[in-house]
Specification:
Elements lengths: L1 E3 L2 H13 L5 E14 L2 E13 L5 H11 L6 E2 L9 H12 L4
Antiparallel strand pairs: 1-3, 1-4, 2-3
Length: about 100
């Protein structure tokens, strides 16, 4: 899962990850309303969120890339494990991202 202030940045970032086979696919959800504390003040702003479908091994590289290329101050990238799922989908995800390690 990833969030960003800029929907355009998020779309470009997701596309690059798919092209580099770090993720099998990404779903961008925009707009969202982010509510958090920032600088001691409550903030509410429009933002974007995305779900990136990948395996555990590329996760550290995705976080590093988001930190390097981020559109805002903090890259919110959270890696959630997959406990179960459609076997065909999981096989496809693995096959699409396994090429990134070659």
């Amino acid at each position: 899962m990833i969030t960003a202030e800029s929907a355009e940045w998020l779309a470009d970032f997701t596309r690059q990850l798919v092209e580099d086979r770090l993720v099998a696919c990404g779903h961008n959800i925009v707009p969202i309303r982010a509510t958090h504390l920032g600088g001691g003040q409550g903030l509410r702003r429009r933002a974007g969120a995305g779900r990136l479908h990948t395996r555990a091994s590329p996760a550290a590289g995705i976080v590093a890339r988001a930190d390097r290329d981020r559109a805002d101050n903090v890259s919110c990238v959270i890696n959630l494990p997959t406990l179960d799922g459609n076997a065909r989908c999981l096989r496809w995800l693995y096959n699409e991202t396994a090429r990134s390690e070659q």
